[in-house]
Amino acid sequence: MKILIVEDEQKIADFLIEGLSGQEHTVEHAADGQQGAQLALKNKYDIILLDVIIPVMSGVELCKLIKSNTPETPILMLTALGTTEDKLIGFDAGADDYLVKPFEFKELLARIKALTRRAHHHETPKNTLHVSDLILDLDKKLAYRGDKIIELTAKEFSLLEFFMRNKGKVYSRLDIVEKVWDLNFDTGTNIVEVYVNILRKKIDKDFPTKLIHTRVGLGYIMEER
Amino acid sequence: MKILIVEDEQKIADFLIEGLSGQEHTVEHAADGQQGAQLALKNKYDIILLDVIIPVMSGVELCKLIKSNTPETPILMLTALGTTEDKLIGFDAGADDYLVKPFEFKELLARIKALTRRAHHHETPKNTLHVSDLILDLDKKLAYRGDKIIELTAKEFSLLEFFMRNKGKVYSRLDIVEKVWDLNFDTGTNIVEVYVNILRKKIDKDFPTKLIHTRVGLGYIMEER
DNA sequence: TTTGATATTACTATTCCCGTAAATTTAATT
DNA sequence: AATTAAATTTACGGGAATAGTAATATCAAA
User: Fold this and answer.
1) Does B11 have pLDDT greater than 90?
2) Which of A9, B48, B52, B89 is most exposed by smallest CB count within 10 Å?
3) Minimal Cα distance from A219: which residue of B?
4) B53 Cβ contact partners less than 8 Å away, ≥ 6 residues apart
5) The pTM is what?
């Protein structure tokens, strides 16, 4: 893992670098906010350890800066300021965890692990959309629900993808025809109804919780119900 | 947000439920590990607050169980056991954060926010109108008041949206018929009265503070009164 | 060219919404 | 209090919106 430490006190920095380098981590070090910002914005780290009181730019400001650029990078604030007020300022700036000095090194390790575990877990390796227990594989162009594998034609796929990307919102037939069929005027067609019907047979018919719902006079909405 | 609290001490549980229910959170409570497991495995929560020392099944065991099923659900351990050893056991079981009692409620809130922030990052921001405690969801085309979910037809929705966007102003029936029904001349219709009546039944009838008010000879106005 | 698969249109039965009209209640005015 | 106007409420018929199916057109592959 790649770790960035922003810490001005050389002794503490050395202690951290020493301790972390041991366990298959690559550690980089910045001694002030300026340096920290440069490194953090240029490189991608698995986690950033941030001292609050550092020269040039405060840890809180740096935290905001990093979170506005790469919000997914976990930030662990590491500081002697231990009041609840201080912690709130840190969390408000976007910090993911806040550890008060002095701390036991083992606890730091555990918290780093917990934070990176979540971050890594969240990366979706597969190219899929999920709504309830319905899964759409964008690569294979297949849908799955329960233990059923659902084959889709091109138009069926487009419509289902549209619904899944816009779950929880009502769309009128006109909206749908525009976005999925690229027709920019009302042709008096009923393709949407027909395809909704086909999709329902495929993804809803055999299951108790329905995903495609009609809102009379308004349109269709996808949601678990 | 949907929160599960697993805590056997009723006083602490009440304190947490009280504090969290305030800020648009739905809170459920389990008094022992068994109950906690049932709820956690059956439902999907945005975060689970877990006491370590609870009857039947320990918090650590429960944590492992939950993480083996739904690893993406964040778990915040909440306990009086404050040694580093205890924390390590918690983190090893898969906890995402560990807070030692006693703590300030604000810090708990901040940590809950930090843990759920990442998961909620992808959710689209809510598109809603508010008047008093009445909420109109423009995406779902639904209204909410108290804990009631109010379904609306197309015309009901249009009229309610008109009232909510123009709260605090009196509009004559003619104004309303023009803006909501697109009728540009007086047809002697009483649609407005009829639909106001329908809306009142849906959004005002069961609540002490009314939102739609009649100004005799002038028209209608929406405001909290 | 033929065949099968997919896309689109046409049509019918059904459901549900909308707006009218009439009855009832409430408010304003003399 | 009586009268009149305004507002509320209910009931109902017409008609639009929708589901579902069948028929036709289009496209792709062999």
Assistant:
1) yes
2) A9
3) B154
4) B8, B59, B79, B80, B81
5) 0.76
